[in-house]
Amino acid sequence: MKLHLFEKWARKGDETPNTCSLHNAVIYTRVSSKEQAEKNLSLDFQMRAIKTFAQRNQFTIDDCFGGTFESAKTDGRKEFCRMLEYVAANKGRVSHILVYTLDRFSRTGGGAIKLCDDLRNEYGVSVLAVTQPTDNSNPSGIFQQNIQLLFSEFDNQLRRQRAMAGMREKFERGIWCIRPPMGYTIIREHGQRKIIVNKEGDLLRNAFEWKARGMKNQTILEKLQLLGLDIYKQKLSAILSNPFYAGIVSTKMLNGRLVEGTHEKLIRPELFLKIHREKPARKVYSTAKKSEHAELPLKTFVRCAECGEPFTGYGVHKDGKSFHYYKCRTQGCRCSANAGMLNNRFALLLKSFIIPDEYKSGLQRLLKKNLKQLVKEKEKELEQYTRRLETVNGRMEKLLEQYHVNKTIEIAVFEKLQNKYSCEKSDLEKAIAGCGIITDSSAQEASFCYLINSPEACWLNAPLPLRMRLQQLIFPQGITYSKVSGFSYPLLNPLFIPISDTTQSMVPL
Fold this sequence. Notes:
By secondary structure, the protein is of the alpha/beta class.
């Protein structure tokens, strides 16, 4: 029979390169931690042992990988992946990966077995441990290597179990034994490990105090950025919600229990609880959050009398002029009003309230006490802003020297940094000026007396944050508005009473 006529139907085997006769290898070494990489000779020892084995068995070394600390719990290591990419790019050339022991290659058990199998079948590459040599050309040798890889994973799990038990015991004693959150540093004092507040923590302490006074997160972020601490809003929310800063240890390993920690407290526990005091649930809207506008102080504070939804605000630009409006969030509801008109009506509403004479002296004392605390906090802020300004001025002087004298930076870099530092300097100078106004006790005392005698004038002349706090102080549950009946309020602060009728709850305007 003429078999050559049937050649086109002949089935060919896999195209896996035959590297059985090759002795081209790459080397991979690693340790598990940074301390091991820096303080012991394990990496050098591994490299010497592998190169001795390669020389004795006539291997040609193509390249070396690793030489650093990488955990073998996963196979997503940087140097490890770089080695695999090299092997794939040099298919048919590399025949072996040489490691000191198989646990240096991987501790993933089944994952490591599959990886070794893929390397053999797709690239013709065998993993060879120089201290545990096996013949991977037959099933018996592969089976032996697989058992060694499974034992590596088993040993890793035992180590993890012992480590977790030790960590749980320390957590139960209030000892934070892992990396502390932002604002803390680990030090060694008289041979003992301590967690103390660092410079970032001093700045974060301000964030808690500002939040306790009702400041919004965006404003807190801006003030922290002025002081040189630039964090994103999700990070700030996580910090403000972490009881670690109040000296409390909370971790999943304690299974819901809380333990008083041995680390330094950043804030008083009472301050943390004040920030997170229980609040009524609020409906979450899908509309995008926008910045506050001085023309819309009543946004979300006033609710529609028809459907109970809070008002939102928007602006209209026409013929070079800007007009602002309030409107109900409910689609189809026609309850809306010109912002200037509604603000004036609200001012008239405030004008109809007074503080009774019997409360004025006590309120005056309370305001003076709060004033002293506020001045103290502002003096601290002033000191921090001043230090930051000195730092920025120093950087600007150094920048000028690098550009004009040393000529070590290009003009594009110089202009970019100069603009950045100039903007930061301007913002800091404005913040310092604002702190100076607050620390003027006589002016502040006059302002508080102004509030006692004329809430309406105080609201009209105050900046936006104070206007919002004042309206919340007088009407703790907000107010509602109807085009027909005007304003109504479910609850009034007992410090204030209507001039015309002490029992009224409806004020049509």
